[in-house]
Amino acid sequence: MKLNSLLIGSQTPILRLKPTHSPNGFLPRSIRACVSSQDLQGQSIAVIGLGKSGKAAVKLALARGASVVAIDHNQNLGLLEEDPHFEKHSGDLRTVLGNFDGDLLNSADRVVVSPGVHLENYGLNSLWHSGKQVMSELDFAAEILPKSIKVLAVTGTNGKSTVVTFAGQMLRQLGIEAFVGGNLGNPLSEAALQCLPSTSSGHKFQVAVVEVSSYQMDIPNKYFSPSVAAVLNLTPDHLERHKTMMNYAMTKSRIFSNMTDAKLAILPSDNHYLNEAIDGLKNELNLSWIGNYPGIKIDLEEKIANLEVPALGIDSQLKLDAIKVIGTHNYYNAAVAALSVVGLGIGVDVEAIGSTIEKLRPPLHRMQIVCNDSHGITWINDSKATNVDATYAGLMGLKGRKSVILLGGVAKVLDGQDSIGFERLVEVLNNHRCVITVCNLIRKSISTQYLEFDIPLFFLFGQFQLIMLHICMMSVLLVRIVRCVNSEYIV
Fold first, then answer.
1. For residue 342, how far is the Cα from the chain centroid?
2. Domains in the chain with CATH codes
3. pLDDT in tens, 306-335
4. Which residue range or ranges hold the Mur ligase central domain (predicted)?
């Protein structure tokens, strides 16, 4: 793989980044879609999986003039043609729930697959290998994104939602209109829908900041081509689907597959799976590393990020001392977001981004400070922790604080083990006041180490847990916990 001479430790001469003019108005505000709004007229599209991404793909296909069959195995879902959001397209739309005839897919001109649908289901793998146009929702949307829109894409096992959120906040604070979504929040199909000439919403954006999951890249993308892309890290996750770490790394690395030379690719400097995976790519990329040069190094003591990418003329320091988000891992998240935004080439420099650091906020329910009470206790909502590594990183950022932690999220059984791994949190949790969890797997995992667990553990279950996720420790039902937390016998 030719890498424009940007290897780790490269001694390429440094080009100083010169201040640029204000980003406001730098990118064209008149945006035209890559295709006409009716480019799929006369074609039939099958969309499989009717979660948020699938429904967005259905809307986009209908807006592009296609007739659509919407498919989901869940028979309890409502028919889309009876949904008010799809009423005006009811003549071109049919919903099929539960078992269905495979000819529906064979007869479709295209098959669009939602991220939650495995290629081993519905004969999709065979269909794709037969030459049928089978594509991800992400790629279906990317096909019609205007070329003038810069795409900043982020993937990785942990931290991708935070980096995407930070990048979106940086851009918006600097007056640059940005769509923030993908695997986080709004599917990319919703962004593409806004760009169609027939769309009356009138909302235009200059940058799309897109969180990308490995599931969205199971099918190699043809049209999704970021201007900047980052793989933040790679630890065991989703192995029930990807089987091996090498497969997982290869899938993650597909985020770079359509990028041309001079585009910025950011990776961790010490992951041999990713290093091997990118060796198989034929593209020419400007590689930058998290933890090495060219790329990002952080002085945690001084709270300064050093950003050096000579090929792009980047050699600057980003002060992080004003950041209010919990955890030193968020210094890296902020620095990666900053380098990614600068790498877009939209007239933003590191100095300008420095003015946004103080206002950065994490995604909701992820190491989110709910309040600091009169007893000096910090109440933390981490109810959307996605796995044990993400939670551990957040808890390490709480060193020196006494906290009550709402611990939740989707606990995943580790490959080849009976445990979800949350028992490794016992040591760091013991530094705090109390743990509340709404996840039974997490409760059981921590309880296996109960003799070593010295603080109260409360488990909320049934419908009550859904309520608690919203009121997040603010209910009078937690008076009992507060009394326990503030009692003198708890250290």
1. 19
2. 42-130 (3.40.50.720), 137-357 (3.40.1190.10), 366-480 (3.90.190.20)
3. 999 999 999 999 999 999 888 888 999 999
4. 154-340
